[in-house]
Amino acid sequence: MSTEKYNQAKKIIVENDDLVDDFGGASEEIIKKAQLVLGLQFPEDYKLFLSCFGALTFGSIEIYGVFREDFENSGVPDAVWATLNERKLVKMPKHLVIIYNSGMGEMYCMNYKDLNSNNEPKITSYFPGFYEDAQKNEVLYDSFGEFLLDMVNEEIN
Q: What residues does the Knr4/Smi1-like domain cover (predicted)?
């Protein structure tokens, strides 16, 4: 479990606190409940993100996370709410967890059917409303940490 890229991203986030709007860290109990509700185990780098930030707006980007226990009555940027909502609305597969909305119809998801060398989900694309057969689930990042590092670097450059 490599958290190196997550730690690099966190350093940039902390150094640019004028761009930060976070929800405060999620408790271990809320993180466990989120995993139970989704039926998945989060990778270590995402759990670190959740315990530190909950969810995060960094400049113009919004990274979905977990910040309240009432997932059913939450909203964006709650990853559990967004994922459950898409599962209901468009029958999004249960192996995907939404972490980012590009604003162009594409969702970035942790994909538990496409794992990296640490046996953690890669970040892949998902287009709600398209049949599963039509989804390419293009790999965008090897890990959540890599995704977060790229996003924060893009925002400050």
A: 25-150
